Amino acid sequence: MRNIFVLIHRWAGLFIAVFLFIAGLTGAVISWDHELDEWLNPHLYDRRVTDPNAALLPPLDLVDKLEKADPTAKVTMLPLAYEPGHTAELSVEPRIDPATGELYPLDYNQAFVEPATGEIVGKRYWGRISLDSENLLPFLYKLHYSMHFPTVANIDNWGVWFMGIVGIVWLFDCFVGFYLTLPQRVRRNVSAGAAVSDAVLDDIPASAGRRTWWQRWKPAWQIKRGASAYRINFDVHRAFGLWLWAMLFVIAFTSVSMNLSTEVVRPILSSLSSLTPDAFDDRTPTPLNKPIAPNISYAAAIDTAKQEAARRGWTQPAGSAYYGQQHGLYAVMFFEPGDDHGSGGMGVNMLFVDGRTGALAGGRVPWEGTAADIFMQLQFPLHSGRIAGVPGRILLSVMGIVVAILSATGIVIWFRKRQARLAAAYRGRRA
């Protein structure tokens, strides 16, 4: 049985190692994506008009100005309140070219606008493969969850689905790796090379005699000082995996929950518990080149959402609005300016408005709903560490580095064992 689990751990680890190494390092950085992006790109985020008494244009006026300046673009997300000292960040997507029925080519999907004048002070394509200062953080963020898989057949989720599969393999391998740390007796009737390998794996001398279960397992939790570089590499791989197993499990599980939410997690959860219908999650999105044109304006959708928020007694102002072209839904978020960056969504109330009928289509309210609803709400805050504020984000940055270390040390272990197997086979042929 153990040999089977060793093979599973080996090949599962090799399949996911490179992707987890990249995801770990990028995750350590993007825990601070907004702060680092602002630091690297003050020319995009800092306001041009510094007069604190300058009159600010209504947010929907910025939308009109941008769409008139570029008729091929449609604003899909805008702030409804301005963060002090910052430009307004608008998200855009291409419209359909009536002559071809395809999307217009658009070389940007974000625009940064001075709220006092409506001047577009900067543009960029969020997620572009580029390492320059403007694109570095968006590039790393998208690399983290999708590996920048290309859009194929007007579907841009291939990378998201692939990393969800990586997460499933990782989740299963968490249990396999844990099992392999459990104490085993050293096999004696093996070749010298294999005996050394097994001693490193099991860390149980043949002369140890009878010891308690914990005494035999305890070395797996430790890093032996003064040992060879390979032994330290192995001890780091094993001990880090044990000491931080619970955190690694949470990160693996939440990565699956987010990347395969609609495809896997929500259907399974619905069969086990009561999950409140969610308009965005339950509607099948259209292809990218088949956007759903709204019958109502931003202004009408925002007004409907504000009336419902007042009826519910919400005190937060409307902070931003989004139109999902593939779902035909408006989403209006309620929060104080700037509060959305570090909350992980747990401090943001949200209401949905159907873009075709203008009717309310539900929403998302943190910490409300069934146990299954709250379980789904927790996935991103847990994965990002934002559920615990700044300390949680620091912890997740450290865990990102740990994931990268475990991936690298695992590859080293495989490579050294492969060399040992090849050497043993060569000696066998010469014997």
Question: Which regions have little confidence, pLDDT < 50, spanning 5+ residues?
Answer: 186-208
Number of strands: 8
Terminus-to-terminus distance: 30 Å
What would the CATH topology of the domain at 277-368 be? Nuclear Transport Factor 2, Chain: A
Q: State the order of secondary-structure elements, H for helix, E for strand.
A: HHHHEEEEHHHHHHHHHEEEEHHH
| Name of the level-1 CATH class of the domain at 277-368 | Alpha Beta
Which word captures the global form?
Answer: elongated
**Residues in β-strands, percent:** 5-15%
Strand order within the widest beta sheet: 4-3-2-1-5-6-7-8
Task: Return the structural class.
Answer: alpha+beta
Average pLDDT for all residues: 90
What would you say about this model in short?
This protein has 431 residues and is an alpha+beta fold. It is 51% helix and 11% strand.
Give your account of this protein's structure.
This protein has a domain at 277-368: Nuclear Transport Factor 2, Chain: A (Roll). It is built from 16 helices and 8 strands. The two termini are 30 Å apart. Residues 186-208 have low confidence and may be disordered. The protein is α+β, with helices and mostly antiparallel strands and 431 residues long. A hairpin with a 4-residue loop joins strand 5 (318-324) and strand 6 (329-334). It has helices at 2-30, 33-40, 42-45, 59-69, 136-146, 158-181, 192-202, 213-217, 229-243, 245-259, 261-272, 279-282, 298-312, 371-377, 379-384, 389-430, and strands at residues 73-79, 88-94, 110-113, 120-124, 318-324, 329-334, 349-354, 360-364. The chain has an 8-stranded antiparallel sheet. The relative contact order is 0.13.
